[in-house]
Each structure stands twice: as structure tokens, then as C-alpha cells.
Fold each of these.
Amino acid sequence: MALLTTLSIEQARALGEHFGLRVSAVEALALGSVNSNFRLVAADGQRFFARVYEEQALTGAETEVRLLSLLSREGVHVVAHLEGTTGARVVDWQGKPFAVFPWVEGDWLCLERVTPERCHAMGAALAQVHLASPSVGTLPAGRFRPADMLKRLERVEREGEPHLRGPVERIRRLYDKYVPLRDEQLPLGVSHGDLFRDNVLWQGPKIAALLDFESAAWGNFAYDLMVTALAWCYRDALQISNVQAMFQGYSSVRRLDPAERAALETEGALACLRFATTRLTDFEMRTPVGGTPGRDYRRFLERLAAIESGAFAPTWASLG
């Protein structure tokens, strides 16, 4: 992704002073799909991760800061922000929130390195996030609800190229199908909402850190579990051994209740539609006609087709 914000060494030094850092070098990082991210190097050689929040307002970034602090206290493997010299952990810079984190060594996994053992660990880690909900308290409902996605589809119709109108109509029809099927009484709590492979750092077989809680919201756990399974356990087809291991890992920490088990297909479908929609707005609309978008919305429509064909059924049956 091209950075929406650039950061000169002079600007990095001025921002670093807010956090008691003497910055000697700054490097832009090609990570993520929305925010601008940087590696800062301090005069003593220590490294830090810095983020300019491109879509979140200051209050939204501060909500993430508070959440990470509380999750860390509950033993969840997250990276809490640095506290500034004035006590603030998020500063306003050119109208955008800016925060700094300790640098955590670790690897991101390519799909070939995703194994059942690692999926088991992912499921357990996600369950720990969910179980921490009572200590966190209620969060906002988030920016990626079906109603929010339908507004995005309207924008694609208004501003996108004509060839995107067909996908918009297809996705809208699928929302019409699945939204009425949603069980609004499912257990709610902290939902990461975006726990893809690039949001998890590994040190060998162990999770070093769960990253990027910017999209975290107060949502249902079944949806969050399906987002994670769809992100980690699908290549060109669903990897059954991986998805079963993830559900087993989750259940070893927090068991799904019967209503949640019954809702997995619907929640998985809504997860697919959420990411198909945001890939239209965040990638397709920003790619010149004839170009190749960085992330393809069709990949999540393929996942939805797998759900509808019953690919997940053996896993759900094993839950009892």
C-alpha cells in the first residue's frame, strides 16, 4: 500500500519528543491497508513502531489504546502503546492521531506456514480476547456493520467504474438474504474483527503478539471466530484440518453455546460480505481500470460459496 502520510526525519524527531524518544532514523513500512506505519530508531538503538491513523478520529484511536492496556492486564498477548511525556498515549498530528508502540520481534506467516498446531493456538488466543470482555467494558459497535457496508456499496455505485455495478448488486442481494437470518441475541463482547495473518506476530510456534485492534468493536463472538477461520484456514479451498484445529483451540478456552453454533453459517456469510465490500472500496476503487488490486474482493465471495456448499459442515458437526 502507498503511504497516505509521509514522515520526514525532522517530523519524526518532533513527534518522538512527545514520547520521550530521541529519534535518529525513520523508515516507512509497507504494512496494512488503511494506516501509515513507520519504524522509528532511537539514539540508543531501540526500535519502535509508529502509526498515523488515517481513518480513525482521535477518540477512536484513544479507544484502541485503552483496550490494549486492559487486554494486556488480562494476560492477552498484545502490545500496549507508549505513554507520552504529558500522559497522553495518542497525539494529534496534522489532524490525524499518532501513536507509538514498543517494537516486537516476530514473524508473519505465509499461508504455507499455517499449520493445524498454529491454528489451534490462534483459536485459543482469540478465545482469551473474548473472555477478557467483562474487564474491558462495552466498546462502540464499530464501523463495519451491515448497514455501514450497504452505505459503502452506495458509494461504489456513485463513484466507482461501471464494471463494479455487477459485484455491488450481487453483494447487496446476499446482504438481503443473510441479514434477516442474524440472531441478535448472541453473546457479545470484545471482537477483534480483523485477525488476519498480518495481524499476528510469531516467535517460533508461539504467538508473540496480536496486533491492530483498530477495528475492534462490541460484537458477537461467533462472527469474530468465523472472520479468523476464514482468514487463516482458506487457500484455494477450505483447509479442513486447520479449521478444525482452530475451533478445537477456541473451545479449549471458551465453549460456544448452542445458539452460537447454530449461527456460524450466517455469521461466516456476513464476514465474507464485509470483506468483499471493503475490498471493493479500499482496493478496487483505488486501482486504475485494467490494473490489479492489492486485494481481491472475489476471494471472499469464493469463501462464501464454500460456506454455502457445506465445506464447514464437518467442523460444525464436531462441536456437538
Amino acid sequence: MFLERLKDFTKHIEECRYTTESGTIDHKAALQEAVKLLHMTRDRGGIVYVVGNGGSAGIASHFHTDLLKGLEIPSQTLYDSNLITCLGNDYGYEHIFSSPLKLMMTPRDMLVAISSSGKSPNILNAAQVAKEKGANVLTLSGFQADNPLRKLGHLNCYLGCTEYGLVEIGHSFLLHTITDYLHQCKIK
């Protein structure tokens, strides 16, 4: 079972699709684009906001930690329990990320939006606010190729898989690859 699952995971990573506003790019160009967006954010004095739900929230928190501690790139998640429950109660769960981003996000910033389905309203709203604010957006999604999140990023990473576990592991793998690449190149 483990080896078969590893083969499935490898296949999904090999078939990952990367798009920009200009069209499809290969994995090398996608890695370079992700690095460019992160450097641009850091060099402009911006903050990388990272959001996701459930398992994707765990991936978001881990990526935030890697950016902040390992790469010294300012980053932030919006997972304070008081904030989430207050905004969810007062405005609806679909606004728990977009409401604070409306106040805090600037064009110097970047949003990393992670959603296995690419259909989570709170993630879509956050990405829309980031675009409206002129910030760069990196999306990671899965499930259906026509999911709406894939249309909102400057760089979109899509895994054509419908299994949460494999999509989440894939997203974690992609983000680790970005941070590991930056470490190996000693780019800080």
C-alpha cells in the first residue's frame, strides 16, 4: 500500500500544472517565479500572508515559520483564535481572512492561498482582496482543474488529484521545495 501510494504521489507531482496570468509554464519556471515573488515582497518591505483551512492551515503555518525563521522573509498567518471566532461570528466564516487583509494588506505584500478544492469561500475572498490591493498572489489547489482559485494567482500550482491527503502532501512538498531551493542557493 505504501509504495503504491508513493507512486500515486510521484505521478501527481510530475503532472502538477503551473500557470501564470500569461499561460502555462513548466516546473523550473514556476520555481523561479515563486522565488521572484518572494524576493520582490521582501525587497519592497512587504509581508507574505499565508492562509488555508484545516490541513492547509497547518501547511500555511509551517510555510510561514520557514519564511520567517529560515529565510528571514516577513510573513504572517491570520490564525489567532479570537480573531477567527470574532470575524466568523460577526461577518461570516467566509470573511475571516479577507476582513483583516482589507485593513492590513498593501501592494508590497504577497498572499499564499492554499485550498485543496480551490473552492473555499474564505480563501477565494482573501485572494480577491489581495488582487484588489495590488499584492502578488501564489495559489496552491487541487481537485478539479476548473476550480476558481486557479484563476486568481499571479502563479498557480494545481495538483490534479481528488484525495485530500495527496493534495495536502503535494502542497507541502511544493512549498518545502521553494524554501529548500532558497536555502541551497543561500539566497536571503
